[in-house]
Amino acid sequence: MSVASDDSGNDSGSVIPNFPYYNTVDQIFHAEWSTAKLARLELLRRSIRALWPQGHPTRLVHVAGTAGKGSTSRMLEIGLGASGRSAAFMGPHLFDYRERFSIDGEFVSQKAIHDLWQERIQPFCVQMAADHPQQVHTFHEVSILLALALFERYEVKWAAMETGVGGRYDQTRALDVAATVLTNVGSDHAHMLGSTLWQRVLDKAGIARPRVPFFTSERDPASLEIIRAICHDVGAPLIVVDEEAVRSFRGKLQAPDHAPLPDQSLLTASHQQWNGALALATINHLCPMLDEAVILERLSRAQLLGRFWRVEEGIYADIAHNAEKMNVLMDEVETKFPDKRKIFVVGISGHRLADEVFASLAGVAKAVIVTAASYKGQDPSLVRASIEPWIGEIPTWAIADPQEALQAAKQMRGEQDMIVLTGSTYMIEQMLNPDSYLRYLHATFGWRNRGADGSVVI
């Protein structure tokens, strides 16, 4: 008995990579993990069907990527607003949970979140848990349900939905969408997505759906090969936004009939223009009847809290929490302020390696102050020790309290100096959030789910 083979090898012994198959093998090798992840997606799908048995009225665009997915989501929201009310679901928030939900470019109110949680989402989740005690929705899942409820209440026509981490197994993968968008794939969250680049591409390209257009501005040829394989496997039309498309986009922004960009526009940064070109290509495909000049004008007005945000004169904040984002931030700082000396106040969270994330500070910083982050924050003294070998003679301090660290930076600032607050979102939040109650809630996130020994409990 012979067995048919479709091996991708050839006579020379070389192997043509079969990335969809590698994903299958990975799922089999980790069947307990992958099955549990996929079961959570199915649980969320069932909840969505129960809450919206006729289907949700908002058309959704699914956005993934290592860097730029928040900015791209905001630009999709603003641009798609030319066709009707638009929205975005993004994360993490900086100061207030309501920042995760934006409608027509404005955060929803605290009252809207309170009312919909108390009246609709929490009662549904409680009833589900009462009927099936093992089926309890997570923070990310209830946030998605709350976003959908907000979009329905405010009659949103289009909404961008940003992934949390990765793509294939992120809970946003449970949504039915009109398009998928992948900005790029980098090194962040390697401990969750895989230590090799191809593993991370497999995960993030896993947002692809059959017959749903897939847009990407990924530039790495090896990564694009994997994306093409995944899209071909599921039958997703692939549209690549390349250098030529970005040059065309920049030319339109610089055209004589286009108004100058506002100072706080996302598009003043060159790397954001890749995100803008990606958003424009997606919008043109989904809404071909819209006037492109109108879309461009709207994209030019897009802003986002925490993206090279001017806190006050001479002080800027940017949530560049991974190496890729930090590299583009350094380019932006040097381009916009070549004559300024830079004092950096930094913090880092999670499993990220400080010497990788902060490596690009070495050629830019006048001084570095390392401080703490509230959620999964790394010890400032240990971070300082890890970066000292390569940071050279740049003065470096460790000050645990974020607000004290900012005051120290202000005291050492001279007339030609500027301060940049960057790294962990949670560090910037603890430093600048004016609401002390929210600061406390953020700093103690998850305490109810931990036992006395630190283990997670329900």
Strand arrangement, major sheet? 4-3-2-5-1-6-7-8
User: How many helix segments?
Assistant: 17
- CATH-assigned homologous superfamily of the largest domain: Mur-like, catalytic domain
| Number of self-contained structural domains | 2
Query: In the CATH scheme, what's the topology name of the largest domain?
Result: UDP-N-acetylmuramoyl-L-alanine:D-glutamate ligase
Describe the fold and architecture.
The chain has 458 residues and is α/β, with parallel strands linked by helices. The chain has 17 helices and 14 strands. An eight-stranded mixed sheet has the order 4-3-2-5-1-6-7-8, with helices on both faces. Strands 9-10-14-11-12-13 form a six-stranded mixed sheet, with helices on both faces.
Topology overview:
Blueprint lengths: L18 H11 L1 H21 L7 E6 L4 H12 L5 E4 L11 E3 L2 E2 L2 H22 L7 H15 L4 E5 L16 E4 L7 H4 L3 H8 L9 E3 L4 H14 L3 E3 L2 H11 L16 H17 L5 H9 L8 E4 L2 E4 L4 H14 L4 E7 L6 H4 L7 E6 L9 H12 L4 E3 L3 H11 L4 E7 L1 H8 L3 H8 L15
Parallel strand pairs: 1-5, 1-6, 2-5, 6-7, 7-8, 10-14, 11-12, 11-14, 12-13
Antiparallel strand pairs: 2-3, 3-4, 9-10
Attribute tags:
single chain, 458 residues, alpha/beta, UDP-N-acetylmuramoyl-L-alanine:D-glutamate ligase, Protein-Tyrosine Phosphatase, Chain A, 2 domains, 8-stranded mixed sheet, 6-stranded mixed sheet, 17 helices, 14 strands, disordered N terminus
